[in-house]
Amino acid sequence: MHRIAQRGIALAACVTLFAATVGCSSDDNGGGGKAAVPGVTDTEIVIGTHMPLTGPASAGYSKIAPASKAYFDFVNANGGVNGRKITYKVMDDGYNPANTQQVVRQLVLQDKVFAVLNGLGTPTHSGVLDFLKTNRVPDLFVASGSRSWDQPDKYPGTFGFNPDYTVEGKILANYVKTNLAGQKVCFLGQSDDFGTDSLAGVEQVLGKDGVTAKDTYVVTNTNVGPQIGKFKAAGCQVVVLATVPGFTALALGTAARLSYKPQFVVSNVGGDLPTLAKLLGDAKGLTEGLLGANYLPLMFDANDPWIQLFQKVNKDYNGGAEFDGNVIYGMSVAYLFVQVLLAAGKDLSRDSLIAAVEKGGYTGPGLAPLRYAKSDHSGYGGERMVKVSGGVQQFFGPTYETDDADGPVKEYAGTPATPPANGVPTA
Amino acid sequence: MTTGLRHLLWTAAAAAALLAVTYAIPPFRNYQLATAAAYLCATAGLTVLVGLSGQLSLGHGAVMAVGAYAVALSQNRFADAGLTGNGVLAASLALGVLAALVAGLIVGLAAARLRGPYLAGVTLAVAVALPAVTTVWAGVFHSDQGLSVYLEPPPAGLGYDFPLERWQAWLALAGALLVMLLLANLVRSRFGRSLRAVRDDEVAARLAGIDVARTQVLAFVVSAGCAGLGGGLMAVLTQSVSPGAYSLTLSLFLLMAVVVGGLGRLAGAVWGALLLVVLPDLTHTIVASLTLSPAAAQRLEGNLPLAVFGLTLIVVMIAAPGGISGVVRRLTPASPLRR
After folding, report:
1. ipTM exceeding the 0.85 mark
2. CATH label, A165-294, candidates 3.40.50.2300, 3.30.450.20, 3.40.50.300, 3.90.70.10
3. What is the pLDDT of residues A246-300, one digit of tens each?
């Protein structure tokens, strides 16, 4: 009977333990105001995100959320949005979809966030779309270019931010087709929607047989020797990369070790020069000549007013973190979110927030147009080519825009807006 | 009163108490309770394998993955074929257990020929091979991104506002109680005594007429079945399956949990499963409540739970080699007759 008594005690202990945790958690419900909007009071807006602060994809990306937070702190110091301060809860998921499930539930069910902003990663964020939809949580500006975010009928609360990978693939391939005509092209992509969508764009422009050899990698295996070896054997002079920064660096390094010197053309999510230089260390010279595309101002344009604004915020509110494309990205997202909050008005609710994004017409640091509308939940609609030369990454040529289907790649004439004088958008 | 009946009564009492708990706590706690219950299936099976049959497995996370992928694939097939409903979910979970039983049989057959570090090596290889399997057959398993799992909303009879998390907690707790009931009876049966005999002295066990190899393989199969159910429940909870969720770290965590809880005791498995859920949450709360520089917070986040787990293991091993359930047993008035 004694062992059964133990079992009983164990179960009783488990019950008390949970009761105790409940007791601790029931007092942090936040709210309390008249309107029961989760995460919103008269003085505060609580939002959350999931980010890879540790693990294989953390290189570079771990700096995005602190940068967004810094911009929010800057806005808070200037009076907040309609008198409300923004609290940004950042959860580490280590780029592991299973952790994302856990931390997003924590944000929504326990911390009761108003919205999820800029959750990072295609494989990670795909897994929580249904959960966020069921709980009617706005899911704004996902930090990835997967086409999954643009499904207004299926996921009415989810919006993208990055140009989708198919749009990007078409723009990169368009450059290859016009400027590197006749050269053999190979393609290396991440083994998920990131790689698949990008390849779809490249093949849309170059044709099904336009890509001589293609292969994929998984983030859990840091050896890309077989893939790069295959491209060398296939005699490719151009290699298009749909890779995260760590694997862009691996691809460049591996090719150098195999004495293979193709022209690399890389996706914007894996092509930030300072991030790559840091990863490559002494071998950072390998980035020379690297082609890519981008849609946000580059840190090397010291005269760009947005860069000047973000550098100031970075110095004052981000502890002077090393300034790079990730910081620019994080602050651009935060700027857009503040614009949307202002458009949603003083009477803030989840519905008014989503309606504000769908109203569209936002302009900010981006070179290409933001396409938000009722029937379009994708983010930026185009990019401009960039090239590394002499250790500096610069834009060249026109900005292009296109769609994710068989539409043409055409030049976009619009120019970026100038930031407001005090750096905080007004309604 | 027979042992079996007594166990049944205890299970019924525990079920009633837990049912009340699921109504009393908010959704996120229900989700955590469900996660602990899913882990409990695996830790209970593992503690029987390691503690009672004396075979070490470093690959139980991978066995959970077998169950989880089987549930995911069958749920999605059923949904594609237009078959939905909660009977289908039961069938999928049964398929998950079946798949894990087969995996357990294969590993067990190999394992019965191996001893000590060699056995650990084989099970370790299983855990390490899992991501590669999902990458090679990416068409089926969808590589690192994994699969999403179709899940019905709670039965309409429970009401429109019934929280999904409470329904998930019910599913997972039902599975865990079933596992506990079966294992409690198994451990006290002739088979349980054979297991201990084989663990303590194989030659003596063989002289007593016990088929050593058969007993060891059976232990592996039983344990794998439990882990398969745990994995299947995890798939239902997270509505997704990916190799990252069932990495080598999970296998090691499961083993640590049963050791810290108290090896060979089902009560220890309960403690272990609770620790797996509570410790990361607790450390996160602590980090969040401290005012740290962004850089320090970033370094602690994600790494601190590992350090705390390791420290707990060291402290428990020094202070209480019998694990938490050993401590609890010493603190409760003991009857000197048992063991």
Report:
1. no
2. 3.40.50.2300
3. 999 999 999 999 999 999 999 998 999 998 999 999 998 999 999 999 999 999 9
Instruction: Tell me the nearest-neighbour CA distance from A384 into chain B, angstroms.
Output: 29
CA distance A379 to A203: 22
> For A97, which of B245, B270, B278 is closest by C-beta distance?
B245
Nearest-neighbour CA in chain A from B240: distance (Å): 6
Is B25 at the interface with chain A, CB within 8 A?
Answer: yes
Measured distance CA(A171)–CA(A49) in Å, rounded: 30
Q: Torsions phi, psi of B218, nearest 5?
A: -60, -40
Identify whether the C-beta of residue A179 lies closer than 8 Å to the C-beta of residue A374: no
The shortest C-alpha distance from A218 to chain B (Å) reads: 7
**Contacts of B251 by beta carbon, 8 Å cutoff, 6+ apart:** B57, B58, B59, B60, B61, B62, B123, B127
Strand partners, B157: none
CA distance A56 to A124: 13
Q: Select the residue from A135, A154, A218, A318 to test the B interface by mutation, using most B Cβ atoms within 10 A.
A: A218
Which residues of chain B have a CB within 8 Å of the CB of A12?
17
Q: Is B24 on the interface with A (CB under 8 A)?
A: yes
User: In terms of CATH, what superfamily is A44-163+299-380?
Assistant: Response regulator (3.40.50.2300)
Judge whether A75 and A83 are in contact, CB under 8 Å.
Answer: no
Given pLDDT bands bounded at 50, 70 and 90, which one contains residue B337? very low
* Burial per residue of A252-282, b for 16 or more beta-carbon CB atoms within 10 angstroms, e otherwise: bbbbeeeeeebbbbbbbbbbbbbbbbbbbee
